[in-house]
Amino acid sequence: MLRILSFTKTGIELNEKLCKKLNNDSCAGYAPKRILDRKEELTYLPENIPEWIQEYWGVDDFLFIGAAGIAVRMIAPSVKDKYTDSAVLVMDEKAQHIIPLLSGHMGGAIPLAEQIADITGAIPVITTATDVQRKFAVDAFARDHYLKIADREKAKLISVAVLEGESVGIYVEDGYPLLKQKAIKETEQYTELKWCDSKDMLNEYEYGVCISTDTKDSSKRILVLQIGNVVAGVGCRKGTAMQILEQGISETIARHGIDQRQLEAIVSIDLKAEERGLNELSEKWKVPFITYTSEQLKSTGEASSSSEFVQQVTGVDNVCERAVKYYLKDEKDGKIIQEKLRLDRMTVSLGMRY
Questions:
Q1: Same domain for 249 and 348?
Q2: Which domain holds residue 53?
């Protein structure tokens, strides 16, 4: 969810324009009550904005239409680190410039700024070193391909090496053709990145990136990007065939460019614990099928959407998305990457551990 904050009449006009152009399900606009007319389709900003921001921090993204200083003061109590912070952007009310202020790579503020720039004609002001120098950014690569950075300090070393012009090797564990294809494409785009046919070849370079299911690597120079950190939440009608469930999940993860083998679990409500199709799929894909009670799912806060029918049947308004949230509840870097999606006889949500 992108939450857009505006503070003037001109800012409100831009806010409304953006909310209409962007997907309504993933965007919400806000403005102060004193200047907001009821005919305008925005929501009143709360009195304590920094406290309100903290409620959604690390889950939703924020765009401030106004001075950068306003944004800085309002997000200051929430800021922690680049791996858990929300994406924060600032835009002037005439839509001349848009700045990804915080979490440009891991939070996706830079691509979001570019998307909004395409809509408004604003100039995106990018200050991140790897972007300015058009160099390989390992954190952005991990984010884009749903990989977990096993060692953040090594990630910093890789970034420094790239900026200093050193060559960095990259290798993908066997059995992941989609990831291999993407990594090779990166080497074609960035001359400093060198493809390695084997893990041993990484040792030919001062620094290396190894995309693998094994997070352990004794080398101080090799960063592991972990495969197998995506979870699928599923809700379905009773008796839904395994083939339908498999197709629904497969198409959803493929839409995000995720290899099926990156999936580490399927989750749902305990009412589905004996659902034949889900258990058969769990066995076929060799991933655990985990279920939670309605009370556990209710404890996950807000969901992107709700269903009165599902509420009546299961005791909770959104099964698939809440199941993912509960699975990730102890992961400080966990994040929903696909909100509830309605498909034939089923719903799907995806989450991952960064």
A1: yes
A2: 2-127
